[in-house]
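for the recovery benchmark. tokens below, seq after
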């Protein structure tokens, strides 16, 4: 009896909360099995690759309401929920003086992206920015040649670290190598040097492929999380009709999405990420017959 007056601890509340969540999950499944139209809509989105549990939890509260009989409303509701969970970063009208570091696994499209962004910032926006490239990929054979090729074609200089200091450039794009631990330490040291010796704002983007599985996306994210990631960029959206892994990853990850690479052509196959584009691509995919 003495226990009744004892204050409840945070741990006890957490245990209770987990139990309630578990009960709610199985309840949600049960409730939905009695609402055929809701179940149909869950199945449509499961077919598209979204997680069943997540869908059930969202839709269960609607069973018994007028929504239950309206498929269009149910789909619209789910799309709105998806929309609210995705975060995008709009491109500023006026870009700040910044060092934009592009990191990610090998072969994911980082160097191509540096080329695309370089061309975009120099030639494709209302205001032309003064851009320079910096190569931090000294491992991969041919890495510098690829960047040099873009630099020559676009008339963008490849600079050395000393050149950062004179603030001559508006945007410095840094191309990096893959993802071993040593590289990350070196990259971290480079970031510290830039912070200490210049006033450039640092923008670090993790590049991920739309063709990767959600587990791999999470694993790569964990590797690079040691650095301070400001935004995500997805590449190779043209190589898959199934964006569910990417969407499932983004639902759980709060980092904003900035750009999308939708093909190999430089510079035109780069777009600013919008929720409309993502959701349209996701809903119109051709694997749902
Ligand atoms: N289909 C497709 N290929 C891409 C895309 N982005 C890059 N690539 C290709 O992927 C390959 C590797 O690109 P690269 O930029 O060298 O990757 P890095 O190793 O991360 O620097 C090249 O053949 C690129 O043309 C994209 O959005 N779609
Ligand atoms: Mg590269």
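predicted aa per position
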């Amino acid at each position: 009896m003495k226990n009744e007056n004892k204050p409840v601890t945070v741990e006890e509340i957490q245990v209770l909360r987990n139990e309630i969540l578990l009960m709610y999950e199985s309840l949600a499944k049960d409730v939905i099995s009695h609402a055929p139209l809701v179940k149909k809509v869950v199945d449509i989105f499961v077919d598209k690759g979204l997680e069943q549990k997540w869908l059930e939890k969202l839709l269960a509260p609607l069973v018994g309401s007028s929504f239950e009989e309206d498929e269009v409303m149910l789909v619209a509701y789910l799309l709105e929920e998806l929309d609210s969970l995705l975060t995008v970063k709009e491109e500023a009208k006026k870009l700040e003086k910044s060092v934009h570091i592009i990191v990610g696994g090998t072969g994911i499209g980082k160097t191509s992206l540096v080329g695309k962004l370089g061309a975009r910032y120099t030639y494709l926006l209302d205001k032309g920015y003064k851009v320079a490239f910096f190569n931090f990929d000294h491992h991969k054979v041919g890495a510098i040649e690829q960047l040099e090729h873009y630099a020559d074609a676009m008339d963008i200089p490849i600079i050395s670290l000393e050149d950062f200091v004179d603030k001559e450039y508006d945007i410095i794009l840094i191309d990096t190598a893959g993802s071993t631990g040593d590289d990350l330490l070196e990259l971290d040291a480079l970031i510290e040097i830039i912070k200490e010796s210049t006033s450039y704002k640092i923008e670090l983007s993790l590049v991920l492929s739309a063709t990767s599985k959600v587990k791999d996306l999470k694993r790569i994210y964990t590797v690079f999380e040691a650095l301070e990631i400001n935004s995500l960029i997805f590449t190779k959206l043209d190589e898959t009709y199934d964006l569910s892994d990417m969407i499932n990853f983004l639902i759980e990850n709060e980092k904003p999405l900035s750009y999308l690479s939708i093909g190999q052509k430089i510079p035109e196959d780069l777009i600013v990420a919008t929720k409309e584009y993502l959701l349209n691509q996701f809903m119109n995919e051709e694997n749902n017959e």
